[in-house]
Amino acid sequence: MMFIRLNRKKTGLAAVFFILLLATAALAGVGGGIEAKEKVDIVPLVKWTLVFLAGLGTVFGAGLAIAAKRFAVQVDPRVEKVLDVLAHAHCGACGYAGCEQYAEAVVKNADVAPNLCTPAGAKGAEAVALITGKKADLREPIFARIMCQGSISRSRKKFIYEGVIDCRAAVLAGGGDKSCANGCLGYGTCTRVCPFDALHMGNEGLPVVDITKCTGCRKCEQSCPKKVIEVLPASKMVLVACHSRDKGGETRKNCDLGCIACGACVKVCPFDAPSVQNNFSRIDTGKCKVCGLCVAKCPTKAIVDLLPLRPKAFITDKCIGCQICTKVCPVDAPAGEQKKKHEINQEKCIGCGICTAKCPTQAIDGTFNAQEVFAAAAAKKAKQIAAA
Fold first, then answer.
1. Residues in a beta bridge with 255
2. Distance spanning both ends of the chain, measured CA to CA
3. Separation of alpha carbons 306 and 230, rounded Å
4. For the chain, how long is the longest CA-to-CA vector?
5. pTM for the predicted model, two decimal places
6. How far apart are CA 221 and CA 274, in angstroms?
7. Which of 212, 17, 8, 15 is CA-nearest to residue 121?
8. DSSP β-bridge partners for residue 344
9. Backbone phi, then psi, for 307, in 5-degree steps?
């Protein structure tokens, strides 16, 4: 037998060696000493170590299984079904942080509508309604609108920016390089955050929206530091494409197509939709009937008409010759004798729809196929993108 005693004068390294040797002896089943052998059989040691680990794993596994069963959260299977039909864009257009949160809310909360996921479209809304047992009301499509026409050739800059090509970075340099404090900087941040490839930069340094791809998710609207992007209903196609708050003279210096707050749009509109406040004209989309009268009157062309196909009015046989249409038409297109069927001069008619709304017998028709209008708008935008 061989015994080892710890010499207090030994160094720390020797003490460590002694502890290791003592541990080995304990595992080997020897008390305070180690019997010198030429060979050590470690098979039993390995075997009992594996048995110990297996037993330990079994105990912990059983504990985890019991805990998982005891504290399990019941998940409604409809949540997973709803999640499968959503767009998975996690854009936040529904008002929730992500698709998972909306799926859970629309299943558990009776007040949450099934048509809030705009990227999923009408089919997605119908599928969610079918799963949740709710009614999916038809929602008007919404698109991103660029509320600025200050392109490279139409606007001025106050300095040359040579930093990071990003609008959020450029705005840190004195508010951006554009002379107009509210104009689009044109560094394409909105095009990079769009998850649907619906925005592209044109040759003139302004983003172009492809409405065939735009879902109105609002990511571009949220990312724009100048707030020149607005997501609006598809039917609202007459807009003041300018956000300048400068006085008229200053706006003319900064941009060729800026709003100078002259008030011409306010005077000509029969529906009181435009209003001028803080040197800025804005159209109330709730009041606007998309007649287009303000577009023709705007001296700086700051108001744009995005409607590519404006229907002409025509009078049917229901006409009683009351002459109301001749009184309300802003361009004197209708004409005719009293109590006789009137006619509308198609060359003069601008398709404003005022006579259609005022006719007491609904004898004037100026309706159009919305799908045809949107298709024409999409084709127009496609040409703009191709040209860019």
1. 155
2. 94
3. 14
4. 135
5. 0.66
6. 22
7. 212
8. 334
9. -80, 110
Q: In sequence order, what are the residues at sequence separation of 6 or more whose Cβ sits closer than 8 angstroms to the Cβ of residue 327? A: none
Q: Give the separation between CA 119 and CA 294, rounded to whole angstroms.
A: 33
Amino acid identity for residue 127 in this structure: A
DSSP E strands, the chain = 142-146, 199-201, 207-209, 229-233, 238-240, 274-277, 280-283, 303-305, 314-315, 334-335, 343-344, 364-365
Cβ contact 211:143 at 8 Å: yes
* Amino acid, res. 347: E
pLDDT band at 10 (very low <50, low <70, confident <90, very high): very low
Strand runs labelled E in 337-381: 343-344, 364-365
The stretch 170-199 carries a mean pLDDT of: 94
Separation CA 383–CA 308 (nearest Å) = 13
Beta bridge partners of 229: 146
Q: Which residues are 238's β-sheet partners?
A: 305
Of the listed ranges 167-171, 179-183, 327-331, the least confidently predicted one is 327-331
